[in-house]
């Protein structure tokens, strides 16, 4: 193997470990590691975005809080509830990851648990389901890639044995 191939393999492994670490850190979040806020909901509206991965979210803003909380459509039960119910002027408690990177200083998509008027509409398990799916897909893809490299090397060795190159 050449130096470039070794460098590519090392880079790929480091990148995969980084992504796995990021996803696993999000899967390990619980009430004790999350920030929480409570208050009365003063704003509720829907946003949409387009591009490579289009989507929608319902945005909630609590009274006297600078931060808005966006519940994406991949959190199906909570998104559906907020889409079909007016929750303005109701009490809410939200657990979120305040250390996660956000698209802006005033809105976070990293909401893990949400209770509105005493009813839990988003549980930690629901919030983490997309992370679990992502972890499975990334690792399955990595294993498939490794398997394909192994098969191609095996085929290359057979071809080399069948057609040896002559050295003059």
Explain what you see.
By secondary structure, the protein is α+β, with helices and mostly antiparallel strands. Helices cover 43% and strands 27% of the residues. The protein is built from three helices and seven strands; from the N terminus they run αβββαββββα. Strands 5-3-2-1-4-6-7 form a seven-stranded mixed beta sheet. Helix 1 runs antiparallel to helix 3. The protein is elongated, with a radius of gyration of 23 Å. The protein starts with a helix and ends in a 6-residue tail after the last helix. The mean pLDDT is 84.
Question: Could you list some keywords that capture this structure?
Answer:
3 helices, OB fold (Dihydrolipoamide Acetyltransferase, E2P), 168 residues, alpha+beta, single chain, 7-stranded mixed sheet
Describe the global form: elongated
Quantity of strands, as a count: 7
Strand content: 25-35%
Unreliable sequence segments: none
Q: Which CATH C-level class of one domain is it?
A: Mainly Beta
Q: What name does CATH use for the topology of one domain?
A: OB fold (Dihydrolipoamide Acetyltransferase, E2P)
In a few lines, what is going on in this structure?
The chain has 168 residues and is α+β, with helices and mostly antiparallel strands. 43% of the residues lie in helices and 27% in strands.
Write the layout of secondary structure elements.
Elements: H1 3-27, E1 35-49, E2 55-62, E3 68-72, H2 76-84, E4 91-96, E5 107-108, E6 111-116, E7 119-122, H3 124-162
Parallel strand pairs: 3-5
Antiparallel strand pairs: 1-2, 1-4, 2-3, 4-6, 6-7
